[in-house]
Write a structure and sequence with these properties.
TIM Barrel; 307 residues; 12% strand; 10 helices; single chain; 3-stranded parallel sheet; alpha/beta
Length: 307
């Protein structure tokens, strides 16, 4: 089958530190009350994606849309529904699969505002249901819906003002709830797979095969004694369909190496494609890093398509 060559682009960016911690301000990951997505930079990046014939864009929404169901989540500069629909139409017209992403991990849900402090309550479930339904309508029944669900550990939240980590049955209960809200609209749920790293047996006993998996690894050494690398192999062994994710976050050459490794170790029927991530806001400050990430995505595709 043809593979997806995906690029994750941020509309919203309130997904990390929940206060203006001086230690992290230089990384642009602290909370803000304005949208860190500059439209002219977005347009240039999308133009490059179209020019390079990249066939999937995952839009990390966060606080980036003025939701009709929950307008209280918007910040200064959040896009109207018509603005985002216009971008979706443009991408689809260019033959690009457009995927919405709302990260419901408690480590990355600062975009949920006050509801990030109501996790696993009736109010929380109602808000999640509303947002999933509205996003599916906005994206005109997308093929996939990325739910995030990564890095929900104390280690990832130790600098937060408010720490929430769901354990065992509660984590699964909430994941199943989110999956059901997506699937009842005939959309396929997609998540990050790193829960597997710390809960191997539990993961394989409880994770539905219907859920598309993105294990992620941003290093340059692809040895099977590295737990993050071994996860790709274990997902393949257990028969899960995957879109491996790489990044130029820390190692420039990660993505082409990831493609080469995956081509050799994941069966064609389980390998849906690849996702390149940059983990930087869509702003002038990081424009060149975005361009480099797209170039590496293109290089990875060329490696994969070599006979």
């Amino acid at each position: 089958m043809g593979k997806y060559w995906g690029y994750l682009i941020h509309l919203g960016y309130n997904m990390w530190i929940d206060w203006d911690n001086p230690k992290y301000i230089s990384y642009d990951i602290t909370s803000t009350n304005y949208l860190r997505c500059e439209k002219d930079v977005w347009d240039k990046i999308i133009g490059k994606i179209i020019d390079e014939k990249i066939n999937m864009v995952v839009i990390d929404i966060g606080e980036g849309i003025k939701f009709e169901t929950h307008p209280e989540l918007a910040v200064e500069g959040s896009w109207s529904k018509e603005e985002i629909k216009k971008e979706i139409r443009k991408l689809k017209k260019s033959g690009i699969e457009v995927v919405p992403k709302l990260n419901f991990s408690t480590t990355h849900d600062n975009w949920l505002g006050k509801y990030s402090r109501m996790v696993s309550t009736d109010i929380y479930y109602g808000v999640c249901r509303d947002l999933i339904e509205e996003v599916i309508e906005i994206f005109d029944k997308p093929k996939f819906f990325h739910l995030g669900m990564d890095e929900e550990t104390y280690e990832h939240q130790k600098e937060f003002l408010y720490v929430v980590v769901r354990h065992s049955d509660l984590w699964w209960h909430d994941l199943y709830f989110l999956i059901n809200e997506v699937e009842k609209k005939n959309v396929r749920a997609w998540i990050w797979s790193d829960y597997l790293w710390r809960h191997r047996n539990e993961f394989f006993n409880k994770m539905p095969k219907s859920v598309l998996q993105s294990n992620w690894y941003y290093g340059e050494e692809f040895r099977d004694d590295i737990i993050y690398v071994r996860a790709f192999l274990e997902l393949e062994e257990k028969g899960y369909e995957q879109i491996p994710a790489g990044s130029n976050w820390s190692k420039e050459n990660n993505f082409p190496l990831l493609v080469n490794f995956s081509k050799k170790n994941i069966s064609d029927s389980h390998l849906y494609g690849f996702l390149q991530t940059v983990w930087r806001p869509t702003t002038k400050k990081y424009y060149e890093r975005h361009l480099k990430a797209i170039e590496l995505l293109k290089n990875g595709r060329e490696i994969y398509e070599k006979v």
